[in-house]
């Protein structure tokens, strides 16, 4: 699939500035999660299982109602594909499965032994109201992860996106992992204690998704845009 940077999208790119964030959605928002796009060159990464972990962590956000990833997989299969190919396609799939918004994420770096995970996460919202809170001038100055190709002149940009590299050998990341493990009730009596989240790659990936989601929830414009999909006092689609 041809890839290009998304023009005019709000982004955050960093390798060390990561931290936990807690944010509730003021109204229920129904999310779909697409199979992960693998740009890492590590071919053993299962895009559906990785998306399942992302969906699981997203479900911890109060107000987030997350559809099974298999629903998106089935829709893509009915179209003869396996992955999201463009922003327009993302919104098309979101509408088809009955989601207010869809999360499209890519893994850009993957080393299960260090561990190191690089990722980029984008959220697309169905409602045209979503673009009202988008700061086009500020966004144009930001770095942009290349996940899906956007047609020239398209207006369906992500309402929020985040990009980071998490290196488990770095003390700052390890401290965040330890704090995250406590929220998941990791037993200190276990042979590795909280460090199981550094030893077991699926657990480390869970942490990475959780932090990325927290970063997205800290973007006020992103939350407002997602809520606009539902509207005040309305039930999600």
Shape: globular
Mean pLDDT: 79
Q: Please summarize the sheet with the most strands.
A: 7 strands, mixed
CATH topology: Rossmann fold
Order of helices and strands: EEEHEHHEEHEHHHH
Provide a descriptive summary of the structure in words.
The protein has 237 residues and is an alpha/beta fold. It has one domain: 3-Layer(aba) Sandwich (Rossmann fold). Helix content is 35%, strand content 17%. It is built from 8 helices and 7 strands; from the N terminus they run E-E-E-H-E-H-H-E-E-H-E-H-H-H-H. The protein has helices spanning 47-58, 69-78, 87-97, 136-139, 171-183, 196-199, 201-217, 220-230; strands at residues 13-14, 29-33, 37-38, 64-66, 101-111, 116-125, 160-167. Strands 1, 2, 3, 4, 5, 6 and 7 form a 7-stranded mixed β-sheet that branches. A hairpin with a 4-residue loop joins strand 5 and strand 6 (116-125). The model is unreliable at 1-20, 128-146, 149-154 and 233-237 (pLDDT under 50).
């Amino acid at each position: 699939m041809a890839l290009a940077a998304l023009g005019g999208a709000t982004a955050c790119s960093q390798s060390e500035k990561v931290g936990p964030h807690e944010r509730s959605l003021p109204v229920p928002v129904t999310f779909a999660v697409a199979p992960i796009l693998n740009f890492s060159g590590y071919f053993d990464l299962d895009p559906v299982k990785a998306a399942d972990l992302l969906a699981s962590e997203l479900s911890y956000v109060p107000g987030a109602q997350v559809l099974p990833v298999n629903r998106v997989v089935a829709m893509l299969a009915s179209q003869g594909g396996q992955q999201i190919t463009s922003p327009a396609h993302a919104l098309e799939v979101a509408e088809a499965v009955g989601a207010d918004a869809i999360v499209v994420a890519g893994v850009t770096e993957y080393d299960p032994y260090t561990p190191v995970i690089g990722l980029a996460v984008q959220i697309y919202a169905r409602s045209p109201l979503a673009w009202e809170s988008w700061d086009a001038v500020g966004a144009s100055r930001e770095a942009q992860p290349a996940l899906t190709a956007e047609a020239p002149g398209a207006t369906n940009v992500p309402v929020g996106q985040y990009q980071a590299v998490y290196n488990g050998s770095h003390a700052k990341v390890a401290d965040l992992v330890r704090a995250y493990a406590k929220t998941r009730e990791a037993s200190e009596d276990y042979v590795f204690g909280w460090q199981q989240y550094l030893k077991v790659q699926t657990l480390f990936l869970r942490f990475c998704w959780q932090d990325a989601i927290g970063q997205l929830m800290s973007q006020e414009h992103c939350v407002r845009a997602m809520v606009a999909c539902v509207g005040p006092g309305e039930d999600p689609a």
